[in-house]
Amino acid sequence: QVQLVESGGGLVQPGGSLRLSCAASGFTFSTSDMRWYRQAPGKEREFVASINWLGNARNYGDSVKGRFTISRDNAKNTLYLQMSSLKPEDTAVYYCHRFPDLWGQGTQVTVSE
């Protein structure tokens, strides 16, 4: 079955860190460019980060540059998002994505006191 399954979300205080994971199955993950998106309540889905299949080219949304790091382990078919210096405005459901139309179910990240 072709699918993406995110995990690692939760409640964290401002300034804290979380690492999200996305387990891929049913397709050749090692040759797939991957992305993270997020969607906050009442807002449109927002691009967070992307990584090419080799793992040597990364791009970030302006709102997360310098705080988030995208990475991958092709041997484990897993995509990661390391999030640091978290802010309340980072609160959202985070999704991993393989272009053009494969999405995970999302994992909730809440940044609050």
What do these coordinates show?
This protein has strands at residues 3-7, 10-12, 18-25, 34-39, 46-51, 58-60, 68-73, 78-83, 92-98, 102-103, 107-111. By secondary structure, the chain is mainly β. The strands form two sheets. Strands 2, 4, 5, 6, 9, 10 and 11 form a seven-stranded mixed sheet that branches. The chain has a four-stranded antiparallel sheet with strand order 1-3-8-7, with no helix packed on it. A hairpin with a 3-residue loop joins strand 9 and strand 10. The termini are far apart.
Q: Radius of gyration over alpha carbons?
A: 13 Å
Shape: globular
What structural class is derived from the secondary structure elements? mainly beta
Q: Stretches where pLDDT falls below 50 for ≥5 residues?
A: none
How far apart, in Å, are the first and last alpha carbons? 39 Å
Secondary-structure blueprint:
Blueprint: E1 3-7, E2 10-12, E3 18-25, E4 34-39, E5 46-51, E6 58-60, E7 68-73, E8 78-83, E9 92-98, E10 102-103, E11 107-111
From the structure above, extract its key features.
113 residues; mainly beta; seven-stranded mixed beta sheet; four-stranded antiparallel beta sheet; 11 strands; 0% helix; 50% strand
Brief summary:
Helices cover 0% and strands 50% of the residues. It contains no helices and 11 strands.
